[in-house]
């Protein structure tokens, strides 16, 4: 029995997810190069002037510096046609500068949802929604 397009796309993203949870910046960058289309369109607010693959690499470099023990747990996966949706829970400890804030030593736990569109077996487009409010509240940067 052959692999469906949905299964193939999930397998491709799993390579990136495994790299992300390795905590190894070089492995993450390499995985991004392997699974993302060079013309990746990244529809998520990212710091700086970068876009596409470079923006995705910058996001992970920033997160790893701030939260070296970052872990992304996949809660749900929905695959249909050329899209895969992931609902994740992210945890980590604030051990490096983040958004201009020195390390607090506080733990964070927040949710995110990403929609990935695949083309030619690679991630061509990403839409993301991250619960930044929960993240900032847990770091003591926002009061409720």
TrEMBL record:
<dbReference type="InterPro" id="IPR009959">
    <property type="entry name" value="Cyclase_SnoaL-like"/>
</dbReference>
<dbReference type="Pfam" id="PF07366">
    <property type="entry name" value="SnoaL"/>
</dbReference>
<dbReference type="InterPro" id="IPR032710">
    <property type="entry name" value="NTF2-like_dom_sf"/>
</dbReference>
<protein>
    <submittedName>
        <fullName>Ester cyclase</fullName>
    </submittedName>
</protein>
